[in-house]
Amino acid sequence: MNICTSGNQLLRNFRLCLNNSHLQSSSLWGLKNCKSPINLSTFKNVHQNLGSTSYLFNRCATRQGAKARFYSLDKEQAQESTSGEQTSSNTDNPVLNETESPPPLSYRQQQKEAGRYLDPLAENAEPYSQGERQREQFYDLLKNCNSPYDVLDLAGNYTLTWRRVSNCLTKIWETTKKMSDDQKRYERKLMFEHPVFEQLCQQAMKDAGKMRSDDLAYSLLALVKLGVSQRSRVVQTLLRVIQEHLNDFDEKSLSVLANCLNDMDSDKNADALKAGLRLLVETRIPKIKNVVALQTMMRCIGKDAPVSLKRKLEHKALSMLSQFSLPNSQYMFTTLAAMDFNSSTLLDACSSKIIENIHGIPFWRLIYVLQSSKDLQYRNAALFSAIAEYVMSTLDMWSNKQIVLFLGLFGDLGLRHTGLMDTFAEKVTETSESLTLRDVINILKSYSLLNHLPKNQKQQFLDSLSSVFETYLPKILPSELLRGVYYFCVLGCFPQSSLDKLLQEDILNELLLPDQRTHGANERILHYINLCLELDRSASTTVATITSAKPSSSPSMTVNPIVLGALKRCLGDEVCQQGVLLQNDYFIDFQITMDKDRKFVLQSQSEENSQTEYFQRVAVLCAPVSALCLGTTHPKGKLAMKMRHLTALGYSIVLVPAQEFEKLQEDEQVQFLKTRIFAEPEPALAGISQET
What we know:
Layout: H1 5-11, H2 20-33, H3 40-49, H4 54-60, H5 75-87, H6 107-118, H7 122-143, H8 148-155, H9 162-176, H10 181-193, H11 195-207, H12 213-225, H13 233-244, H14 251-262, H15 268-284, H16 291-300, H17 307-319, H18 326-339, H19 344-356, H20 363-376, H21 381-393, H22 400-413, H23 418-430, H24 437-449, H25 458-471, H26 478-490, H27 496-502, H28 505-511, H29 519-535, H30 561-571, E1 576-581, E2 587-595, H31 605-610, E3 615-623, H32 637-648, E4 651-657, H33 658-662, H34 666-677
Helix pairs in contact: 4-6, 8-9, 9-11, 9-12, 11-13, 12-13, 12-14, 13-15, 14-16, 16-17, 16-18, 18-19, 18-20, 19-21, 20-22, 21-23, 22-24, 23-25, 24-26, 26-27, 26-29, 30-34
């Protein structure tokens, strides 16, 4: 029942003696001192009803100084209470039984019963208890829902409060997270057809103004993730309400909101909310005292935020470096990746802390650090080597899939850690039967990308991988077959059965379908496989080469002007050809013609044509940093394959690491070229793991 405000003001401000005479006089005194009017008839009803509990006062009369509080009722409520008492069983409530004498109560029971009937909140306690039980029951049932349809069926049986609407929408999204794409489509179709879903959306629009910040953020996120149209009324309503209450959002709610906005297309309300979010973050920067709060704010602004705002957050983070814990340092990598902002100073500081505590970091945290470094194009050889050393020293505690994941990221980052790769190659050779097709393809990709084979077990390693790969040939997809054979070819290995299957006409036709999205990429890969079959394979093999067209796109024909200037200072003008494109689409930056002993440079082109057998062609290749392994001049797979093929065509190779070359002084550049051009012919780069 509702409590009358004036009655509370009256009856809570005086003490009452526990006998009838004192009760009556005190009530009159309270009426005289009441500042607000009160319905005397209502008070009379309450006063008369006290007779049913008078025995409580008599039992408590021996206690001096006992306090009692009273409440007043509206007339209708008092009548409802009286009728409810009359219909209830006497045996159920002995306190209201007027025909039987009450049993003796202990003092603790007397206090408990007195508190129950004299507390002005007592009549609201029972309904509140029932409501609480109902809420608990609803959320218990909600936790057990396994599909959107289950959630909607449950919501249809309860009153849709704003809190339940928010929780139902979030639960619907959570149930679809781990479903397959086909199952998601089917469940979403059922969800949109369910009548309660429309009620949820209607209630969300109606109660959006009452929702707390986290409920607003999670409701919007759930609707967007569930595929509700961004132009729908419910999404646009939530966007407008969030704009109005944005100043009330805490860090967690802002983070959820930012995650949601990243998945939304550009429109008037979404763009306005993004702008407001960035302004809010900018105003809160000086007040941030906690690293976690700072990182949350940094993630909120998104990748397309102004660089000036990113710089302010960077400076704030640098000023708080002394507060960074190990988890803060790890989390900073993913935070900067979420901003798409490469702060080398900040990342270097975090890297140092990670290196110092590398043994205390779990698997997925290390993966996130490497993935974020890849996304940010951040290269730290010391950090990556420390992680690789840790993985190698604890190799037995990692599964093959975990190590393959590490190697894949190291390959993307350009780190060629020979110790880890040799150790894992030995493990693969011993336990190759446990590898899946995906494992084999990823291992081949990593080793071919980094141009590495183990020194002592090269052939055993390749044979183990090829035997496992060929066991999957009956059910392999053409795209997987193409990738696997290409990686083998880059490594200088040509598994016969795999090549036979790839060269089947139906497989080639499927790979080269014009309307395929990967048509261009497949064409280029087949071209390189064809070159490997022509230039690398021994004459004893009998498999025909691929008769496919050359790739439509030609390589870049721009030469490095700094290397060109150094060559002219070293050899003179017009002694080398620039930008030579061979018939097989290999591009040579500079071609020099020398004598067989590489003692002098040919000055006349006609002399070369008449006496070719007496001269040596030298190919000067400018290698960008992306074509070399991190921190070394070891060529990656595609460059190594090109060098191998040019050697087979009769060229001597001079490799110039462009980035390091540009850092040299002019006289040092000339000396660098002289020592490599006027040198003894190097052995052919047929060995995959040979250093340059």
